[in-house]
């Protein structure tokens, strides 16, 4: 009897997640690959609100793959890249060095150097509008990562 209750709870949770739509997921080429591979078991929105390192997402994807998620090696690489980029750990633009900014935000070394130079010359960035004032930084490119950027 207890097993049926547990099974019922698991099915209810999976049904709930499968009904969520993915409109809040960042648009990128890998989004569709992520949705196709993951939606057989749960909704794509299950990752919203979770932040993890690339290693965390790699282990999560490996676990799903071991449980039967279907896809090619390339598709799973794309999924890990998507999750690490859009659901990676927060980055404090006032504390990260140039190489961390380049790696974590996937911006050019010149853009990262501009952020570091700006905060040295003008003081800490207070918010998104300050970041938008940094000459040479492609703010549009950073827009999808806004939820990961801290000040």
Biggest sheet features: 2 strands, parallel
How would you sum up the global shape? elongated
In helices, the fraction of residues equals: 55-70%
Uncertain runs with pLDDT below 50, 5 residues or more?
6-20
The rounded Rg comes to 19 Å
Q: Give the rounded overall mean pLDDT.
A: 87
What is the number of beta strands? Answer: 2
Coarse structural class: mainly alpha
Question: What topology, given as strand order, has the largest sheet?
Answer: 1-2
Tell me the series of helices and strands, N- to C-terminal: HHHHEHHHHE
Number of domains: 2
Q: Give the DSSP E fraction (strand runs of 2 or more residues).
A: under 5%
Distance between the termini: 52 Å
H/I helix tally: 8
Report on the structure:
The protein has 151 residues and is mostly helical. The protein has a two-stranded parallel ribbon with strand order 1-2. Residues 6-20 have low confidence and may be disordered. It has helices at 2-19, 29-38, 54-66, 73-86, 98-105, 109-122, 128-132, 139-142, and strands spanning 91-92, 149-150.
